[in-house]
Amino acid sequence: MNTQITRQFHLYISKPTRKRTLLEQYRHWRAVKKPPYKHVVQIGDPVLRMVCKEIPRNEITSSKVQSLVQRLTNVMRRKGLTSLSAPQIGVPLRMFTAEQMDHHLKSIPQEEINKLGMAPFELKVLINPKLQIVDETLIEEGEMCYSVHNYHAVVKRHKAVQIDAFNAKGEPCKWFAQDWQARIAQHEFDHMDGVLFVDRMDSRTLTDSMWKMYNDQGKLYW
Ligand SMILES: [Zn+2]
Q1: Residues lining ligand 1 (ion), CB within 5 A?
Q2: Where are the domains of the chain?
Q3: Which of 14, 18, 38, 101 is 20 to 30 A away from residue 66, measured at CA?
Q4: Residues 111, 136, 141, 188: which is the catalytic one?
């Protein structure tokens, strides 16, 4: 271990915080300190490395599980994400949500949408998912995760998969996912077993999305 770096890190995390602004104070007061959180946990949090537990089928309609579904959906939408898993809001249970709204695609060039095979789809709540590979062809594409904030890298994923799960009503459901949807499904399914995209990436492609801005601004933001 590099002691100097460790010391610097220690100094960084232990330096006294400045007085909060009113807005920061309000956010602090509103923040949820116990899971399920209203924020998305970051890499290093042990919950992201846990093998998540199944939810007993007869508990899916319980108020506890239903409020988890609601929280997960709300956080996903509030952050403008296409998908989010329960461990990412601090709950190591086998559940994820996915939804591709029209407005998600508005900022993406049409060529990119066609190339990646992106298409809008309605909200899916997938509980106790099982994944089956339908087309083994491996596709290399850039991928990111809100729990590894600001970073992206190239990851190989199978072209088509099928997820068998239970929906929020506790009914069996299927998701045949190909192209971009298959990538989403495999990424979120990995979260069920404590696997992150950084475990599967081509490490030489790992990129800080802000790298160019640091050069343009001539400084780092810490
Ligand atoms: Zn993720």
Answers
A1: 145
A2: 35-217
A3: 101
A4: 188
How far apart, in whole angstroms, are the C-alpha atoms of residue 189 and residue 220?
34
Q: How many Å lie between the centroid of ligand 1 and the Cα of residue 61? A: 26
Tens digit of pLDDT for each residue in 151-194?
999 999 999 999 999 999 999 999 999 999 999 999 999 999 99
Residue owning tokens 């559940």: 95
CATH of 35-217, one of 3.30.70.920, 3.30.70.141, 1.20.1200.10, 3.90.45.10: 3.90.45.10
**Catalytic annotation on 143?**
no
Handedness of CA 152, 99, 190, 192 (dihedral sign): positive
Phi, psi of 22 (to 5 degrees): -60, -40
| Cα–Cα distance measured from residue 51 to residue 155, given in angstroms and rounded to the nearest whole number | 21
Q: What is the pLDDT of residues 109-138, one digit of tens each?
A: 999 999 999 999 999 999 999 999 999 999
Report whether 144 contacts 152 (CB < 8 A). yes
Q: Ligand 1 centre and the CA of 126: distance in Å?
A: 15
